[in-house]
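INFO batch 0412 | record 1 of 1 | parsing
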Amino acid sequence: MPSLEGRHGTRGRGRGRALSAPRLRSDTPERAGLDPVRLDRLVREVQGLTAGDRPWAAGTVLAVGRGPVLAVEEAAGWAVRYARYDARDRSGVELPPDSRVPMTPGTPFDLASLTKLFTSVAAVQQIERGTLGIDAAVGAYLPEFHAAAAHRLTVRQLLTHTSGLRPELPLYDCADDTERMARLRAEAPVGVPGTYCYSDLNMLLLQQLLERVTGRALDVLVHEGIARPLGMTATRFGPCPGAAATEDQRRPWGKVDRGMLRGVVHDENAWALGGVAGHAGLFSTARDLAVFCRALLAGGSYGPARILGPDFVELLLTPPGLGFAMDQRWFMGELAGHGAAGHTGFTGTSLVLDRATDTFLVLLANTVHPCRRLPDNGPRASVATGVARAVRGR
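INFO prediction complete | emitting tokens
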């Protein structure tokens, strides 16, 4: 078996007594070093995304902060607006006004692929502890995943989407978990390992690997290693009653027939896997995600808690990033370019943290309510650009 340590896997490195880091507090844009006029304009822009008969999203929650200050926490639109999707009219059938559910700043959202960020942090925690080697072969931990073992896929390749695995598999069409696991174990790269190809399968394999080396399920690892120490009380795998609604999920636009979804995972593979998956399944709020961003911007600490040492936050957020996308203008706008990190989720979620200015942005939207559509990332990029321009002295 190869070394389980790897270049950044030295046992105990970066550990020790955590220094207390300031907790997030709500305060004025001026106290955050942000332009209040530009932020007011940005809030109105985001509110406009929920207006009209065919809005960009039924509802949104926006959180913006710099340093330990949460300067904006605003909701707009509806957590639940539609009863169903009418495929003939290609529009949603609206609920009566008194049956709709308004969006609030505390509304939980199905995070979709933002879940990958938590899986990645959980992996880097194991790298820090020396139980996982970043450049070790996946087959060293999961020998029964014979295709990954035969192609000598590595932990780093899973974390950077350079394994060559295809974007997804139709696990939702499998008869049971036995068949689903058999397909994952037999899945070989379709691309050349070492070249970039974004794939949910990377995080599904990483989930299996983490559960093997720790002996604990992914939902437990995320709760005990990230959510609980940071006080993220609204962050958990579903079901999540009270969450913003997502899709009236039916064929042919969906991959399964489930009807209008609220509080259960939207992603069909995550649903088939019981709601806990490395690539999707988490629910959270804008404030909880703001805390997550703040902890990473502070070098892994938040209050008295530490989820990672500074060296390992650096590893996580050094280009090309482990799980995190780096400097992607298509959704980061003008925040990109100086080491900004973040991710998007299919349901309409996104976050960006910019270490160059100590700034973070969380934009949660239920863009798939009542039905999925071709992605329009223009609003995400525009909002990020608005935040970048609000940073004083940038």
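INFO post-check: The chain is about 30% helix and 20% strand.
INFO record closed
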